[in-house]
Design goal:
Helix content: 55-70%
Distance between the termini: 64 Å
Strand content: 5-15%
Structural class: mainly alpha
Strand order of the largest sheet: 1-5-4
Shape: flat
Length: 251
């Protein structure tokens, strides 16, 4: 437990405590904008961002957005989870359809890009060509079915992205409105104590599993009692002696 606490102190907690001691609990409200550096004409982001609005990125100084989501926006999180499940289902349906038509005479080859992924643009182009001169009805039918699934996935992505943006904006606007008691609860209870508790429980489970595996190994090793082992050794020794005598060996 001491090592767990010290590791967390070095990784996260000492920085949080520094902010709190310098700025008070109000430091938990800070969400700062971050900027990229230029390298070979491209933007390089040295920090991970928590929010992005209109291509501008922001990072919460102390309180991760997920903690605010869990404490204040449980209903919105549930809805977002449902949208994620719908997106996953749409993606899996599309993947299964493509794999089902991925054989030696794939009907979807013309709809795939250089990376082997079907795209709506390529599907539409191929459907248009076949509708003008349909040489393969099966290919046209497969493309139309694939297009339906691609559109379903695209729609699910948009719904999920739009709602995620809405939730991000709610959380972003919540930071400056947090009271001191809410800041303390978020930092001390939801972040520090919850993280330490999670790590301690994980360590207990690891040690318990390690002990259980050791006990199982010992149980398997000593499953047969010593008297039984001695008897089996004597029986086998007698058999060996008998075979050696038949071979003419004497001692």
């Amino acid at each position: 437990m001491y090592q767990i606490i010290m590791d967390y102190w070095v990784e996260v907690m000492q920085d949080d405590v520094y902010v709190v001691t310098q700025d008070g609990w109000e430091g938990g409200r800070v969400v700062r904008q971050i900027f990229p550096t230029k390298k070979d004409g491209k933007n390089v982001w040295k920090e991970k961002h928590d929010f992005e609005f209109n291509k501008e990125r922001f990072k919460a100084e102390v309180i991760p957005p997920t903690l605010i989501e869990i404490r204040f926006y449980d209903d919105e999180l549930r809805i977002l989870t449902e949208y994620q499940e719908q997106l996953d289902s749409a993606s899996q349906a599309l993947e299964a359809f493509v794999e089902g038509h991925d054989d030696e005479e794939s009907l979807l080859d013309e709809a795939k890009n250089d990376k082997g992924k079907v795209t709506q643009k390529l599907i539409n182009a191929r459907i248009k060509a076949l509708e003008e001169n349909c040489t393969d009805p099966d290919e046209l039918e497969a493309l139309q079915g694939c297009l339906k699934l691609v559109k379903a996935e695209s729609s699910a992505k948009k719904v999920h992205k739009d709602y995620k943006h809405k939730l991000d904006m709610l959380v972003f606007k919540k930071y400056p409105k947090l009271s001191e008691s809410e800041l303390k609860a978020l930092i001390v209870e939801d972040k520090w104590l919850a993280t330490l508790q999670g790590r301690i429980i994980a360590e207990i489970e690891r040690v318990t599993q390690q002990l259980a595996n050791r006990v199982k190994t010992l149980e398997e090793r000593y499953e047969t009692p010593l008297p039984q082992l001695t008897e089996e050794v004597a029986t086998l020794s007698a058999r060996v002696d008998a075979h050696l005598r038949k071979m003419g060996l004497q001692w």
